[in-house]
Structure formats: structure tokens, C-alpha cells
Amino acid sequence: MFGHTAGMLRWSFLLTIVVILLYSRSTDSIRWLALGQSNKLWNHAQHCPRTRFERKRYGLAGVQTRLCKRHADLMPIIMKSASQSVMICQQQFKNYRWNCSSVRQVPKLPPDLTKGTREQALVYALSAAAVAHGIAKACSSGTIAYCPCGNAVSGAKFDDYIYIFQRKGCSDNVPYGQKVSKEWTKIKKFKAAMRLQQQQQQQQQQKQHYKQQFQRSRYRNRQRVQSQRSYHDDIIYMRENTNVYPYLHKKHKRIFLAPRARMNHHNYRVGRNIINHMLELKCKCHGVSGSCNLKTCWKVLPPLMQVGEMLKKKYSRAAEVRWLSGGNSARYSVEPYALVGRVTEDDLVYIRKSPDYCTEDPRVGSIGTQGRTCNATEQSSAGCDSMCCGRGHEIVFEYVISNCRCRYVHCCYVECDRCRELAEKHVCK
């Protein structure tokens, strides 16, 4: 009986892992960035995917499809955010070995965006930030009818002995943008995984019951046997305890998530929260002859490109982590542990080192740098020494079409001719 129960427990555990991984794959990914490639204008519920094939085409999970049907007016903004995420990522990394070209393959995800690398961390954070940024801006511009302005700036103050009244302006609604971003990117398949977890716990309790009955019939020293049993169980189940942990929200709800899923959620949160510290105060003066006795002030977010630059800095400082658990089986405290230095809730994290991206290797998502253009005079990442990975480069001459003989035409524009010129280009071997 004990052997049969143990076998059932192992199969149940394996089934739980498979289901969790399937759920993580279907909902916890950036496949939805494929929305940026759509030429459709999704502004009505009937435009949302109706079949699994359509969902798969745009990389949408069931949760995202339902959100599309309930709030179709948000979809044009989310689609624009997806397009901007890809564009900004490629713009910022065009002079790096990893040039973010793999994001163009969505909804298919190459290994560099699924293995838990720092590149994956960046793309997840950038996509979440783009949605939060776009929604916050749309609220203040009136694009979303039911979304109000953000926190108002009001009050009065003395400035150089002149009484200045600050009238309320319409600020970007960052909290609402973050809320939509969180709903769009979070996993909704919690209940099924938790049910499987509860079933596993029930089977574990049943196993303990049968085991105790078996041990009572053979041993009299219950304390000694109980101690041996606990130690034995710790050894047996150490593998499952170190590979799949419960994930704790602030409300201490236990949820089954794989390490990469927890990494993705952490980086999503970093992307959403980064815009909290990037609000800028803008004011417009009113008054006679520019006296500025009355000012209208509001808080605005900078362009998304600046948000991307901030995340790029975090990318360079991203921390490699392992997820540690402590406590007993009834309660866990799961936190990312940095292998080098310390990690905070504002840091990007990754769980696997990136390849050097020097040579083509589909197994790790590297397209290599052979044939890439480089700058022979720079020592930065765009320089030929770094870009070509020591293989050297060659000089190629090709004709390019560019503006020439430009002149000012009254009134009022600049007119140029198009000329064909021979240009020198450095290409990695």
C-alpha cells in the first residue's frame, strides 16, 4: 500500500509540474508583443480573437483575450506599446552584439528570450513599462473616457515674495497605467495550479497516515521513528523543494510558479514601477505681461525612450540570482538571492548567464556578429574590436543614395538633390 501511494504521489507531482509549465508558457510570456505587427484597429470587442488559432497568431493568452473583450478601448494603446517596445529595444541595442532582433520573431520566442537571461529580463521590463506609460499618457490626453487625470498638483506658495497660485492641471495617471499593465501581464491560471497543490498535500497527508500505521505495527519507539521519517522525507523531497517553490504575494497567498516565471514577474514589476520616479513637473504661466501670478501645473512622464534608457542602465547592472526558500512545508519565504552583491526590488534579475553572442548558435538564440557593421575608430560596444569578437573586419565599398546640394527655397522649405556616392563600410568577418 505504501509503495502504491508513493508511486501515485510521484505521478501527481510530475503532473503538477507539467501543468504549471504549460500555464507558465501560455500566460507568462511576451508573445503578446506580436500585437505590434497587426495592421488592424482593435477598438471593439468583435475585433478580439475568437479562436485559439487567432489567439496564437497574436500571442495572446486567454486572460488577455478576455481583457480585450471587456476593455477593447485599451487595445490600440497596448498595441502601440508593443510596437514601441520592439522599436526602442532595437534602437538602443543596435550597436551591441545582442541587437534585440529576436524580438521581431514574436509570437515565436527564441532561446535568448526563454532561458532566463538578462536580455529576457530587459524585454519583459520594457514591455511592462511601455503599457503602463502608454495608458498613463492616454488618461491625461482624454483618449480613455473613463480614466481620470492623475494626482493633481495644487496649492499656493511664496516665490521671491510674490504670491503664486498653482492651479490644477491634468497629470499623467501613473497608478492606473500600472494597474492595467499588471492586469495585462500577470498570470491568471493560479486556481488550477493551487488545486493540484492541494491534491498533492492531501496525498502527502494520506501517505503520512499509512506510513504511521505501518510504523506503529513494527516499532515501539515512536519518537525515534518519527525523527528518522522526517529526515528521510527531507532527503526524498529536496529536489522538488529546490525546483518549484510557492510564490508569496504581499497578502501571503501561496502560488505555484517555476523559477523563470517568478523571474519574469519580478522584472515585469520593475518595469511597471520604474515610471514612479520619472514624473516631471510642468507649469504654464498666466498673468499680465508674463507675470506668472497664476500657474497651471501638472506632472508628466518623459518619452518612452528615456524610460528605455533607464532600463538599459538596469540591464547593465542586472543581478544573477537563485531563489531561496526557508521555513517548513507549511510556510515559505521566497526571495531572490544575488550570487554577487545584493539585489533589491528595483533591480532586474536573471537566472542564467548570457552567451557572448559572437557566433551563430540557434540553441541559445545567438545570430552571431558575422556580417555586422562596426566602427573601426571606436572602442565602445560598436567598435570593431568588440563587435567582431577578435575575428577582425574587412572594408567594403558600396554606393549609397543620400541628400546633397541642399538649398533654402523662399518660402519656406529646404530642397535637396539625391546623389549617389561611394561609401566605406567596415564589416565583421
UniProtKB/TrEMBL annotation:
Family per similarity comment: Belongs to the Wnt family.
TM region positions: none
GO biological process: canonical Wnt signaling pathway; cell fate commitment; cell morphogenesis; neuron differentiation
GO molecular-function terms, A-Z: cytokine activity; frizzled binding
Top-level taxon: Eukaryota
Keywords from the UniProt entry: Developmental protein, Disulfide bond, Extracellular matrix, Lipoprotein, Secreted, Signal, Wnt signaling pathway
SMART domains: WNT1 (SM00097)
Residue ranges with Low complexity bias: 197-215
Any one GO cellular component localisation term in the record: extracellular space
Organism from which the protein derives: Trichinella pseudospiralis
Stated role: Ligand for members of the frizzled family of seven transmembrane receptors.
InterPro entries given in the database record: Wnt, Wnt_C, Wnt_CS
Name of the protein: Protein Wnt
Signal peptide: 1-29
Region: Disordered, residue numbers: 196-225
Compartment(s) where it occurs, according to its Swiss-Prot or TrEMBL record: Secreted, Extracellular space, Extracellular matrix
